Amino acid sequence: MAHRAYDRSNVTTCRKSNHLTHREESEFSVNLGQYLARQQRRVDMFLDQCVPAPAVGDPLVQAMRYSLFSGGKRLRPILAIAAAEAVGGALRTVLPFACALELIHTYSLIHDDLPAMDDDALRRGKPTSHVVFGEGIAILAGDALLTEAFRVMAEAARTSSLSPRRTLQVLSEVAQAAGVRGMVAGQAADLCAESMPPELPMVEWIHIRKTGALIRAAVRTGALLGGAGTAQLHRLTRYAEFLGLAFQVADDILDTEGALHVTGKTRGRDQVRQKATFPAVLGMATAKQRARELLATALDELRPFKRQADPLRGIARFTVGRACPPNGDTGARR
Ligand code: IPE
Ligand code: IPE
Ligand code: MG
Ligand code: MG
Ligand code: MG
After folding, report:
1. Ligand 1, atom nearest to 109 Cα
2. Which of 111, 118, 251, 277 to mutate to test the pocket of ligand 1 (most atoms within 8 A of CB)?
3. What percent of the chain has pLDDT over 70?
4. Distance CA 324, CA 45 (A)
5. pTM of the predicted model as reported, rounded to 2 decimal places
6. Using a 6 Å CB cutoff, which residues line ligand 1?
7. Does a structural domain hold residue 299?
8. 226 within some domain
């Protein structure tokens, strides 16, 4: 199994949140590290079937698999699975859609690292796709991963007993989240903002789209396929929106403070590229405060849910906790 670009010591410490009541703390019995590892194995196995190893050297498929199996945390598919579980849905139904989100995420990272975009040479502690395979193949590997995602979802919809209406809603929402109404729009604004003085509304606009949209789609995919009722779907959507923003604020913080063994990325790239980030606009201390507030608000949305939502709680604490641990220590540097 490839190295996962996160520190497992943070997985356990992030359970201790100052936003928990005693009752919640005692109810929160999920060992998040074990839960993540179990779901990662399931996701890895499914992805291995989606993009099998080529019989003969095929640089395109090699590049797809290189990025797909380089140690991503699999948070988007796990969020989809955890959201389905939170509403009593079945893993089998949601797994192909969850994995499709990881295919889209992986494509977005390959393109994000390209010289024409963030020009990053390191991802998950390894050379980026274009460094290994050249720009042309890296671009095409991204294109192929994005397209495969929709093939995998369409195939799952065709062969499952899910209602066609539900699955088409999921497909439509994922397309919206990934494209010009979501992630790609955020990525474009992120590039344009490099030459502008950053302001908070603009940074929020970018973050909600470039990162938040796919996270929102992941949670809604799990909730919709898991059979969430209207009120549950509303709560889970709001949880995902706060988490999605918190996720990118945490990523911004880690860009400055995160050690290579935690992030798998070169530190300080946002400043070099003059990116519009939360620390650039608010300062580091306020950005951390904002991340903790977003976490608290996300957790509040889960209040009506019982222990089945513990993985969603744990993932949110883990996401923010690795950038700003609750005890105030800068665990990200360990
Ligand atoms: C990194 O996402 C890119 C952002 C949207 C901030 P992750 O931190 O989930 O990356 P991997 O997949 O675990 O490497
Ligand atoms: C990337 O944001 C978001 C997407 C890939 C859609 P960043 O550019 O901050 O992500 P990292 O820091 O390179 O992982
Ligand atoms: Mg970027
Ligand atoms: Mg980047
Ligand atoms: Mg970043």
Report:
1. 3
2. 251
3. 89
4. 32
5. 0.92
6. 5, 72-73, 75, 105, 124, 211, 248, 251
7. yes
8. yes
- What dihedral angle (degrees, nearest 10) is formed by the CA atoms of 233, 316, 225, 33? -150
Residues by chain with Cβ below 5 Å of ion ligand 4:
112, 118
In a domain, 4, yes or no: no
Ligand 2: atom nearest CA of 183 is 6
Region 63-89 average pLDDT = 97
CATH code (residue 315): 1.10.600.10
Which ligand number lies closest to the CA of residue 186?
2
What the block records as the tokens of 152 is 């995998």
| Model confidence pLDDT, tens digit, residues 268-322 | 999 999 999 999 999 999 999 999 999 999 999 999 999 999 999 999 999 999 9
| Residue 295 belongs to some domain of the structure | yes
For a pocket test of ligand 2, which of 107, 109, 114 has the largest count of ligand atoms closer than 8 A to its C-beta? Answer: 109
Domain that holds residue 114: 11-328
Ligand 5 geometric centre to CA of 247 (Å) = 10
Angle separating helix axes 230-257 and 310-321, nearest 10 degrees: 20
Overall number of domains in the chain: 1
Burial label, 37 (beta-carbon count in 10 A; 0-12, 13-18, 19+) = middle
Residue with tokens 């936003």: 19
